[in-house]
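#dry-run=false #mode=assembly
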Amino acid sequence: MEDLWLPLWTSLRVAVLATLFALPVGVSLAWLAVHGRFRRVEWLDMAILLPLLVPAPVLGHYLVLCLGGERPLPFTEAAATLAATIYTIPLTALLANRVFRKIDPIYARLAVLLGASPWQIFRQVSLPLAGRALAAIGVLSIARSFAEFGITLLVARKFPSGASTLPVALYEALAEGPDGAALPFAVILMGITLALLGAAHYIRAGRLLP
Amino acid sequence: MIDVRVETTMDSAVRAQRLHLEVHLRASTGITAIYGPHDSGKTLLFECIAGLHRPDRGRILVRDRILFDADSGVSLAVGTRQVGIVLERNCLLPHLTLRENLAFAASRMPAREATQRVSEILDRFSLGDVADRVPRFLDPAEHRVGMIAQALIRRPDVLMVDAVPEEWEPSLRLQLFSLLREVATRDNVTILLATRRLDDCFEAADSMVILRDGKVAQDGTPSEVATKPASVAVAEMLGTDLLIPAEIAFLDPQNKLSRLKVFGTEIPGPYFAGHFKGSKLMLCVAPSRVDCSPRNGNIAFPGHLPLVLRRAVVHAHDVRLYFEEGLVVDLPEVPPQSMQAGSRWQMGIPPSAMRAL
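#status=ok
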């Protein structure tokens, strides 16, 4: 049973931490892509999309190169969190981008005319108007981080404590042979993902948050 | 006092070619209506004054303060221009109460002054009872007044009101105009009111500027503009006068008379200085000065234009007659037999009522 609980608990911790990092970064990037007044804003859009298109092992490889050497980060929970954060930021940014684009631009225009700074517009206009949708995106980000596998396999397959994340544990169980040991991992992963997806839907629809 | 001389170009929302704005506008304290059709440049002009759009050339002065000067490279930031705008749609921030919306507009003031100003302006516009409601619980008039209050919170020198919603009833419009007049007088503010309705110019404005294709077609008091449109284009925009194409058949400078050929018929006209025999011109005639009546038989009275009715539309207080010749005349009442398509009519125009454009 401990084989199950330890990776589950590790994965949840990593997912929540990764979301705490990915959500502000992704939301800020999305807001800049919508409201930023700088040239070549499309480059930002492309930069957001890039991690989604590049194969996970490539990202993992770069991450190992960046974190490797004398620094102790690889194969720790921090490395797993970083991997999940990188994996989650594009999704968060893309979803938040859609949300910000749906907000009537007249409110940002009014705020500019009233002399508000970009930071005021972000904090006092865009964030409150997008609040519920961003909360739903936060929940989806947890699900996304929870499911991260490709980069983690390269940078944090096994922590010094012997633990790993749930998807990696599932992979390890599958690699050991088709004896059904992987099934509980798969069921829990699927169950938690479905639960988070449902929660995000209910939050978006206004049934879980006002 | 505001003096705006700007030239700029921008992609147009509704037409293929770009909108080129080239405007010189002067307005003093009071309400100046900026009248023009959709896409004539009203909103772009406001954006230039507010600082949302940087003109290519020109200068914007408000009470001798330079907001923008292309030559010297001066362009004050949006928030420092002392200019208020009331946007066309009701758009107070939906997640804030009215009081919070006003506080948001006052956020650049010192905290104590901002609180005082918000209370003062809520009292002034009698909004105290609804101050703690979010916008969706305000009625349209309260919402609009809230937006005016929000635009005035930082004591602007110029207030720009970007049109009153088309769907508003006349009584509501009059209330709003009365409020704007009070603001103009009490706060010594220059108010620019963009509108697509001629009625708004008469009801609200001390002076008006007609904007057409990004250029000032005419300015003056509303009655001056309405009685003496400067060009055929302005007369067409105003739609208040009859426009009748004519050709000078005969000129008598001694007796100050002429004869005009209109729709194949010669009628007497005044002497048109600067025109010659054979000159083509557009007669501009106030509908109230013409005598339009059904005629018996084919022959019109001497000096009258024979017309043929295309259709008649009965309204609550009058009948609108559309003639084959392209003229449209409103009459208080019309005999039923004369309302049929093809009915023969005649129109007498006193020479003193004719103006050449």
